[in-house]
Amino acid sequence: MRGETGLALIIAWKAVKAVILLVAGIGLLVSLGSGLTPLIERIADVTHVAPDLLESRLTRRNVTLGGLGLIGVAAFNVMEAVVLYSRKPWGEWLVVLATSSLIPIEIWRIVEAPHAVRIATLLVNLLIVWYLARRLRRHRPVEKLTADG
To answer: SS3 string of 90-125?
Structure first.
């Protein structure tokens, strides 16, 4: 267990992200109960986007899909945390592949609209990929050399 502080931090990060995403997803779905108008007004206040523009895009179906999508991503983050915690042999590979697959999208979003949270997210994800890739490289089985080659 010694020397696994980085792994523990990644597990905690994935768990915290899962809680945040789950709360956001449930919040979106619950907000449908009071109709879309209060949700549109809240989003317009926070984002300074014209309510009529939001109204044309925030349909009941889109909000439902968004809420379910957030819950799905939360479930995936829980799975990542659990497989890392349980030290599944494929767990680190799963997290490296899933996390690194999002890096090009994060870079594109930063180029389109730079924001401190986006940059921080990119840096955290790069650090996670680097740390886990390094662990995988260090812990890979050493192939036995044979006389045949």
So the answer is: CHHHHHHHHHHHHHHHHHHHHHHCCCHHHHHHHHHH
Location of structure tokens 């044979």: 146
- CA atoms 127, 125, 73, 63: torsion sign: positive
| Total-model pTM | 0.80
Q: How far is CA 104 from the centre of its chain?
A: 14
Q: How many CB atoms lie within 10 A of CB 43?
A: 16
Helices (H), 4-35: 5-31
CA–CA separation, 18 and 16 (whole Å): 5
Q: What is the distance, to the nearest Å, from the Cα of residue 113 to the centroid of all Cα atoms in its chain?
A: 19
Distances (CA, A) of 17 to 27, 45, 78: 15, 25, 9
For 119-133, what is the mean pLDDT? 95
Q: Residue 54 is which amino acid?
A: L
Please write the tens of the pLDDT for every residue from 39-64.
Answer: 788 877 877 778 787 777 788 898 89
Query: Residue 2: what are its φ and ψ, rounded to 5°?
Result: -65, 140
CA 136 to chain centre: 21
| Separation CA 42–CA 35 (nearest Å) | 12
| Location of structure tokens 């309510």 | 51
